[in-house]
Amino acid sequence: MIRQSISLTPPNDEWLKAQVESQEYTSKSDVVNDLIRKARAKQDEVEEIRKRLTSSEQSGFATPDRQSILAEFKKELHNNG
C-alpha cells in the first residue's frame, strides 16, 4: 500500500478521530479510503448518467419547450372547437 502524508484542518482531524473511536473504522486511513471509494462510486454514477443524457440528446429526442406545448394545445383547441 502506498503511504501518503496529508494535512488536515482541526475539525476534519477531530471528525476522523471520532469515526475511529466509534469503532466503525480501525484507523484514519480506513476512513479516508472509504470516503475515496464512495466518491469514486458517485463519480462513476454521474458519468453513467452523463453518458445516457448525451446518448439521448444525440438520438434526436427532444422535449418541446413551454411555448411549443402551448401553441400545439391552442391549435388542437381551435381545430376541435
What does this structure look like?
This protein has 81 residues and is mostly helical. It has one domain (10-80). 72% of the residues lie in helices and 0% in strands. The protein has helices at 10-21, 28-58, 66-80. The longest helix is centred in the middle third of the chain and has 31 residues, at 28-58. The chain is elongated and about 75 Å long.
Average pLDDT taken over every residue: 91
Largest sheet: none
Number of domains: 1
Order of SSEs, N→C?
HHH
Helix content: over 70%
Q: Number of helix segments?
A: 3
Q: Determine the N-to-C terminus distance.
A: 75 Å
Helix/strand structural class:
mainly alpha
Ranges with pLDDT <50 over ≥5 residues? Answer: none
The count of strands amounts to 0
Global morphology: elongated
Strand content: under 5%
Using only C-alpha atoms, the radius of gyration works out to 26 Å
